[in-house]
From TrEMBL:
<keyword id="KW-0411">Iron-sulfur</keyword>
<keyword id="KW-0326">Glycosidase</keyword>
<dbReference type="GO" id="GO:0003677">
    <property type="term" value="F:DNA binding"/>
</dbReference>
<keyword id="KW-0255">Endonuclease</keyword>
<keyword id="KW-0238">DNA-binding</keyword>
<dbReference type="Pfam" id="PF10576">
    <property type="entry name" value="EndIII_4Fe-2S"/>
</dbReference>
<dbReference type="InterPro" id="IPR004035">
    <property type="entry name" value="Endouclease-III_FeS-bd_BS"/>
</dbReference>
<dbReference type="GO" id="GO:0006285">
    <property type="term" value="P:base-excision repair, AP site formation"/>
</dbReference>
<keyword id="KW-0408">Iron</keyword>
<dbReference type="InterPro" id="IPR003265">
    <property type="entry name" value="HhH-GPD_domain"/>
</dbReference>
<keyword id="KW-0540">Nuclease</keyword>
<dbReference type="InterPro" id="IPR005759">
    <property type="entry name" value="Nth"/>
</dbReference>
<keyword id="KW-0378">Hydrolase</keyword>
<feature type="binding site">
    <location>
        <position position="198"/>
    </location>
    <ligand>
        <name>[4Fe-4S] cluster</name>
    </ligand>
</feature>
<feature type="binding site">
    <location>
        <position position="201"/>
    </location>
    <ligand>
        <name>[4Fe-4S] cluster</name>
    </ligand>
</feature>
<protein>
    <recommendedName>
        <fullName>Endonuclease III</fullName>
        <ecNumber>4.2.99.18</ecNumber>
    </recommendedName>
</protein>
<dbReference type="InterPro" id="IPR011257">
    <property type="entry name" value="DNA_glycosylase"/>
</dbReference>
């Protein structure tokens, strides 16, 4: 785990990220807050590409909690069976849809606690929804962010909660809204787990990673 980078270095890093991609977007396809919740819940231990492939047709016919309940669990499974852990995820989607209909009038709540009370929705999922739909600067720490944060010194931490706190505490507030997207994309396409593309990295000269590649 690298040491925590200095304020001015972090500001320069995110200035470069912003210049390269001013409005980074999450890669999960959705049409409203509900389909975003479902897509993120389905993405656990799965790729965004795989989830998008499964949900593209699903969301055309079930884009609200009530429509999902009307569809039913078995038909839902038919759409998402290519996704890992699909049976358990289908059960959770049906349960959370029922709760949204019964307790929230079919609307997705926008507090972290309320979101996390839904089956299959953890802190990371709640943060993704708060950030992507309501533009709240919540930081959803996944494996990419955890790796980038600890390799580079941008937001080091022993666990995801510590990394989330390091982002909130150390990244300047004007970059907070898009911070987790920039870090995810950097980890997904440049600072990859096995073969980081350090030779083409925007922040190579600022990063503390000791095993840089050419």
């Amino acid at each position: 785990m690298a040491r925590q980078l200095h304020y001015h270095t972090i500001r320069e890093i995110f200035t470069r990220f912003e210049a390269a991609e001013p409005e980074p977007k999450g890669e999960l396809e959705h049409v409203n807050a509900y389909t975003l919740v479902v897509a993120v819940a389905l993405s656990a231990q799965a790729t965004d590409v795989g989830v998008n492939k499964a949900t593209r047709e699903l969301f055309k016919i079930a884009d609200t909690p009530q429509k999902m309940l009307d569809l039913g669990e078995e038909r839902l499974i038919g759409h998402i069976k290519t996704i890992g852990l699909y049976r358990n995820k289908a059960k959770n989607v049906m349960k959370l849809s029922r709760i949204l209909v019964n307790d929230y009038g079919g609307e997705v709540p926008n507090s972290r606690a309320a979101l996390q009370s839904l089956p299959g929705v953890g802190r990371k999922t709640a943060n993704v929804v708060l950030n992507m739909w309501w533009h709240y600067p919540a930081q959803a720490v996944d494996t990419h962010i955890f790796r980038v944060g600890n390799r580079s010194g941008i937001c080091p931490g022993k666990n995801v909660d510590a990394v989330e706190r390091a982002i909130e505490d150390n990244i300047p507030v004007d970059f907070q809204r898009h911070a987790h997207h920039w870090l995810i994309l950097h980890g997904r396409y440049t600072c990859k787990a096995r073969k980081p593309a350090c030779g083409t990295c925007l922040i190579r000269d600022l990063c503390l990673f000791e095993d840089k590649t050419l």
